[in-house]
Amino acid sequence: MIESINWVKAEWLFDFLNRSNNRKLAKSVSKAIDSLGFTNYILFNDGDMFRSFYLKDHIAPSISVYYLRDNYFATEYWRKHGTVWEPRLISQSDACMVNSEYLGAYCARFNKNVHYVGQGAILHYLSL
After folding, report:
1. pLDDT value, residue 118
2. Which helix (H) or strand (E) holds 21?
3. At 24, is the secondary structure helix, strand, or coil?
4. Is there a domain that residue 2 lies in?
5. How far apart are the C-alpha atoms of 81 and 113, rounded to whole Å?
6. In terms of residue numbers, what domain contains 30?
7. For the chain, how many structural domains are there in total?
8. Contacting residues for 67 by C-beta, under 8 A, at least 6 apart
9. DSSP structure class, residue 61
10. How many other CB atoms are there within 10 angstroms of residue 32's CB atom?
């Protein structure tokens, strides 16, 4: 179980505790990777800017992708540490995928490998 740390005020303490949380998550993910026999895998991070910040270092994926699909800073919870940590995560990711041009422009400030993927689904491909 990871610790709830978002309201920790000191940035150095948040980082210390976040590293611990990341190690715990990585241990669980590594166990799954090993049990499935994966040797070449992609880390696809869907907006998890805190708990997965150090995950790339711990599990050594072939490629790491950060998927940004919402403006998280519209809420106080994500603004608390996210304005510092999300740009760092974007810059250390191999690629950034976004679902809006606005978010693409934001990500491009930190990583040049940004891909717009749009939103929604193509219904004629679905068997309903």
Report:
1. 85
2. helix 11-36
3. helix
4. no
5. 24
6. 11-125
7. 1
8. 44, 45, 46, 47, 96, 97, 98
9. -
10. 10
- Residue 4 located in a structural domain: no
Is the pLDDT score of 123 beyond 70? no
pTM for the full model? 0.88
* Helix, strand, coil percentages for the chain (3-state, nearest 5): 50, 15, 40
> Residue range 121-128: average pLDDT?
63
Q: At what angle do helices 76-92 and 11-36 cross, to 10 degrees?
A: 60
Q: Are 62 and 40 in contact (CB under 8 A)?
A: yes
The token pair that represents 111 in the structure block: 């990583």
Domain assignment present for residue 1? The answer is no
- Token digits for 18? 């976040």
Q: Could you give the angle at the alpha carbon of 77 between the alpha carbons of 75 and 80, nearest 5°?
A: 105
pLDDT exceeds cutoff 70 at 62? yes
Centroid of chain to Cα 91:
11
* 3 state DSSP class of 122: coil
